[in-house]
Amino acid sequence: MAIYTRTGDKGETSVIGGRVGKDDVRVEAYGTIDELNCFVGQAHSLMEEEVFADVREQLLEIQHELFDCGSDLAYVKLGEGQYQVKPEMTVRLEGWIDSLQAENPALERFILPGGSPLSAVLHVCRTVCRRAERRAVTLGRSADINPEAVIYLNRLSDYFFALARTANTRAGIADVEYVRSKKVFRN
To answer: Which residues does UniProt assign to the signal peptide (predicted)?
Structure first.
């Protein structure tokens, strides 16, 4: 089976329910989610099995859910009962965030992305997730979308922030505070 179809050679692509330009806001939204999924896979591949067994399972689940999220945004017309991203997915993320935060030292100031190589990749996940969220919000201004997808992406970026800090904590590397930051977080 050939993986090429030649149907997109003129700058259009298929979405669920029609065809649109490859630069359509819908394609940009789910394409950014696809990009995020690649970085999540990279982060997963950098995790030592024995140190991050708990989190590796979470990332695999998130990768599946990112496909669900992209699918929800790929529909031109979708009935509410068909949405794949559900509120309980966000609630579960919040539990994971709370567990990760319990491992991390208190935070008072903004931090610089980085530290360990794994933390740096997780910060990339966080920022690409924020971009995916912005693209989904833009799409939602002109089309009906699953509102839970935006909420999920918002919380997912918080998860990546907490996990980036946990990656440094488990590696014994301190986060580097932004030196010009005032105390902005309350503990």
So the answer is: none
